[in-house]
Structure prediction request, 220 residues.
Amino acid sequence: MSVLVEGLTAGYGRSPVLRDLDLRVADGELLVVAGPSGCGKSTLLRVIAGLLPATSGRVLVGGVPVRGASRDRAVVFQDDGLLPWRSALKNVELPLALQGVSTVERRERARGWLDRVGLAGFERYLPRELSGGMRQRVQLARALAQGPEVVLMDEPFGALDARTRSAMQGLVVEVLRETGTTTIFVTHDVDEAVLLGDRVVVLGAGEVDVRREAILEVLG
Ligand SMILES: Nc1ncnc2c1ncn2[C@@H]1O[C@H](COP(=O)(O)OP(=O)(O)OP(=O)(O)O)[C@@H](O)[C@H]1O
Prediction:
């Protein structure tokens, strides 16, 4: 599904964080949003997720205005947000249960996604028994198991070591491309932005095509 942001102004108090922002993400595209700390990257994701209302302007997902959170948009945050008392499998199953998917089907889907992210055999582990990278993989499996049209990722690998991070980046590109999911990925890591993005938008500095070397100038 495409994501269209039109004249978006949003923030928390009287002075907006985002002002009159326009952005278009094509169906199946992986757009990276970069920019310095505090420029509003997370705020943008929250509005698209439907967790924060726009002050003015609008966001259309698949042509339909966003009015709140919805299962067609899954969010993956840096802090993993898993429920500590539920096993990996039960964490992945939870949104499916909330959707009313039958026990048998949701178990099968959750197992399939855990397998897909390389966690076969860890279904019964609790989050605290898993490494940071593994917890992020559970979170990714949970997001994708819902079959979202759009995945919103907010510095999901920020807390991981370089090797785990690089493995996760490979996994994300592979899985998201394969499923044709539209993805908006927030990072302030230049390498990550160039590696992952079909396009990179630098908030506050306009849009840059990653195939042009200009990206490094703008971000550096
Ligand atoms: N819940 C909140 N209440 C009030 N102000 C907030 C809230 N969340 C963020 N802000 C403010 O909004 C501005 C943008 O924050 P946001 O988290 O969107 O930036 P960011 O680009 O994602 O930064 P970072 O790269 O550091 O995560 C900041 O000045 C921040 O202090």
Summary: Residues 206-220 have pLDDT under 50 and may be disordered. The radius of gyration is 17 Å. The longest strand covers residues 3-10.
